[in-house]
Design a protein that fits this description.
By secondary structure, this protein is mostly helical. The chain has a domain of 78 residues: 434 Repressor (Amino-terminal Domain) (Orthogonal Bundle). α13 packs parallel to α15 and α14 runs antiparallel to α15. The longest helix has 24 residues. The protein is globular. The two termini are 18 Å apart.
């Protein structure tokens, strides 16, 4: 009965995540002294759609959120209301102050209390952290990060802060330590981003760049630029992200003699092209997005299977995952779901089933996108099922995703039958 009363409180006028997003849109619209029609015209959506977004009856796709944020002169995170308050027991949250200190003192750390362990040991542990990051296991990786970053920092600097300013070729052990530091900073970036601490996430991105520059690994440097472009996309700086990614694609192609790219190069190149497709979709350019997607598909065919080189999830399945996401981002949710049925026919099933072995976070993200598309098409039961599948695959990634909170909030608001499973999912997601 307690969960039922909670659900009734929400649907009787309380605030769900979908209505919180709508309330923020309305608040900033009024602050900018714009009417509903004026804002709808500037974002190129209908007045009725904007009214539904502001009421919380519908969840705006990411491309629309980006455009709304741009017109309202705020970051998309402000519309989503991030960072969200977390429960005191959240293991990820407890490391945030320590990560802030480590990221601030990256080139002038306090004296080591204990002698750092051998680089081989730290590398093995960082490989484990990287796998956890790709699988969305933030509770497990969070407590490992501060100690690993601290030890690697002391190994990389070799006891002298002067190394931090030196981009010339370093001794091999120090260069390898810097490479592992870049991996660790990337995990810190993901953790901060998922929790909604975007300032900390941006700082971690800069630290990835700093460590990658000293690693002597060109593809690690490319990875750093890729992460920076991702941060730009999240803040709606699409033109800047496009410039970075286009330059990066040219740079990766120049790395290999006579265009004979290794599988690692191909994976990084493909990931860059997929990110460019996302930029075009968020910028309201669906045709250009599909062109970039087709380019990525060519590289995926060369790889034949999905890989995680340099923690870049890329391959044939990821191209399809991005096609569904891009169609949903640009509002063509009907076609996005049609693609799933079409590809399912190739497998002899009703809807496309993801291949085994994909990074859990990537697979979970796909089901989150599908849930939003199903909700937009009026399939509330299907949206609920997709959210449950996303949670099964990568619980912490799902719990902290803004689309999950918005979609779960809309389901609560629309499902007047007070389905306890819907209420429980929404409550779990922090709605």
């Amino acid at each position: 009965m307690a969960s039922l009363r909670w659900w009734q409180d929400l649907t009787a006028g309380g605030t769900t995540m979908s209505t919180a997003l709508g309330q923020n849109i309305r608040k900033y619209r009024k602050l900018r002294q714009l009417t509903v029609r004026a804002l709808a015209d500037r974002v190129a959506i209908s007045v009725s759609a904007l009214e539904k977004y502001e009421r919380g009856d519908r969840v705006p796709p990411p491309a629309v959120v980006t455009q709304l944020a741009r017109v309202l002169h705020v970051g998309p995170d402000r519309l989503h209301g991030q960072p969200w308050a977390a429960e005191p027991a959240d293991g990820e949250l407890s490391v945030v102050p320590e990560l802030r200190r480590i990221l601030l003192t990256y080139d002038t750390p306090d004296a080591a209390v204990l002698e750092p362990r051998p680089l081989e040991v730290l590398t093995a542990e960082m490989d484990q952290v990287a796998r956890m990051r790709q699988d969305g296991q933030y509770v497990q990786l969070a407590p490992l990060l501060p100690g690993l970053l601290t030890e690697l920092t002391h190994l990389a600097l070799g006891g002298t802060p002067a190394v931090a300013r030196d981009r010339r070729a370093l001794p091999q052990p120090q260069a390898r330590a810097f490479r592992q530091l870049a991996v660790g900073y990337r995990a810190a970036n993901s953790l901060a981003h998922k929790l909604g601490y975007h300032d900390l996430s941006y700082t971690a991105c800069e630290r990835v760049h700093w460590a990658a520059d000293r690693s002597g690994d060109p593809l690690m440097q490319a990875t750093a630029a890729y992460l920076r472009a991702g941060a730009m996309i999240r803040m709606g700086a699409l033109g800047s992200a496009r410039t970075v990614l286009e330059g990066l694609a040219d740079e990766v192609e120049r790395m290999a003699p006579e265009l004979s790219l290794s599988p690692e190069h191909q994976a990084v190149m493909g990931a860059v092209l997929l990110k460019l497709a996302v930029v075009e979709a968020r910028d309201g350019q669906p045709d250009r997005a599909m062109e970039r997607l087709a380019e990525a598909g060519t590289w995926a065919e060369a790889l034949r299977v999905d890989t995680t080189h340099y923690e870049m999830s890329f391959g044939p399945a990821n191209v399809r995952i991005h096609e569904v996401a891009i169609l949903s981002d640009t509002g063509d949710t009907e076609q996005a779901l049609a693609r799933l049925r079409e590809w399912g026919g190739e497998q002899g099933v009703d809807e496309w089933e993801l291949p085994d072995g994909l990074a859990a976070e990537r697979a979970s993200h796909h089901h989150i996108d599908v849930a939003a598309a199903r909700l937009a098409e009026g399939d509330r039961a299907g949206a609920h099922r997709s959210l449950l599948e996303a949670r099964r695959i990568a619980p912490m990634h799902t719990r902290h995703h803004p689309t999950v909170r918005a979609t779960a909030g809309a389901l609560v608001r629309l499902d007047r039958g007070a389905h306890d499973s819907v209420a429980g999912l929404a409550r779990w997601a922090g709605v």
